[in-house]
Prior knowledge:
Keywords: DNA-binding, Phosphoprotein, Transcription, Transcription regulation. This protein is of the alpha/beta class.
Amino acid sequence: MFIKVLIAEDHNVVRKGLVFFLKTQKNITIVGEAKNGLEAIRLAEELQPDLVLMDVIMPEMDGIEATKIIKQRWPLIKILMLTSMSDQEHVIPAIRAGADGYQLKDVEPDELVCSIYGVVKGESRLNAKVTSHMMSYLSGEKSETETSLSELTKREREVLAEIAKGKSNKEIAASLFITEKTVKTHVSNILAKLDLHDRTQAALYAVKNGL
Length: 211
């Protein structure tokens, strides 16, 4: 797997450190650097990276708003938030904006690399603190349009359980002995029936409901 990464980080020392470290990693290439959200959007369009490593707090436009715009315009681009902000006020909006993963800057280097690979493969990679915030948030929120798990077919429930384990579509297909195309269809049906926006929300929903 060859991964093109765009780094969006306003602190020069942090950004250069990330560039230096990730350049040492096999199959990861840094295609661009952005100092704010507006630059991140412009470079995302120009460079079409596989993944954007996005800070939350940046000048001119923050990472959350940039994430929302990038995911709307180029939904195939993965976004992994990398920030020092672990409070619910930043975590929830970032996930709602479409972030595919959320890691803190004190993450171990090897874990960051694993998160990059995981997110690109379609897995949800959330820091433990972030997961705690999401679970707390979800436990206190009951959407009026939320559909019961009973609306899902047996196979859809099985796929949802696999999503909760962080598996990619390819891995789910292998586990359930079905085609990857069939998995994609089930995932689409699950998101539609449960009124969820992405796999991250689906995984959290599954955990919340005992799957």
